[in-house]
Amino acid sequence: MEITDLISPKAVVADLKATSKKQALQELATLASELTGLHERAIFDVLLERERLGTTGIGNGIAIPHGKLPQLERLYGVFARLSKPINFDSIDDQPVDLIFLLLAPESAGADHLKALARVSRLLRDKAACEKLRGSENPEALFALLTEESEKNAA
User: Fold this and answer.
1) Neighbouring C-alpha atoms within 13 Å toward the C-beta of 9
2) Cα angle, residue 70 at apex, residues 55 and 4 outer, rounded to 5°
3) Which one of 13, 39, 49, 102 has the minimum C-beta count within 10 Å?
4) Cα-flanking dihedrals φ and ψ of residue 69, to 5°?
5) Is 109 helix (H, G, I), strand (E, B) or coil?
């Protein structure tokens, strides 16, 4: 499972303008809706439901909201760099400025977990996160995300 299996250049936002966790999830659900063809409300509801179970803010300014939808046929990812960090109820109480949204089919099982682990591994790399935070161009962000993926595969 590689990052390139999850995201496309269209799934990268370089300057997400959100002032709250809920607004960020709404914006990401809208973009995910365009990519998947699913209704944005269905995506948003799944994300909110997951957040009720516990925050997906994993610390160090990173959040990995995720959910499963029965209508999906494959995994989808959306990456966003926020213009200003927001409160995400993270486990370390630090604001979030990098979000990787992951959506999986209801039947994904192990693939969903492998994708979460892959994204988590990438975003635990402090050098990779610094590069992502330093880039304001969606194409550059996509290249950085997939470059790290290729490096790890080697």
Assistant:
1) 5
2) 70
3) 49
4) -130, 130
5) coil
Q: How many helices (H) and strands (E) does the chain have?
A: 5, 6
In single-letter form, the type of residue at position 86 comes to I
Cβ proximity of 80 and 102 under 8 Å: no
Residue with tokens 């994204």: 119
Set out the domains of the chain in order of their start, with CATH numbers. 3-153 (3.40.930.10)
What are residue 103's DSSP bridge partners?
Answer: 67, 76
CA distance 52 to 58: 15
For residue 3, the one-letter residue type is I
Q: What pTM, to 2 d.p., does this model score?
A: 0.92
- For residue 30, give Cα distances in angstroms to 36, 59, 75, 101, 121: 10, 25, 16, 12, 26
Q: Which residues are marked as active site?
A: 66
Q: Which two tokens stand for residue 29?
A: 């659900």
Average pLDDT over residues 43-63: 94
Number of neighbouring beta carbons within 10 Å of residue 133: 15
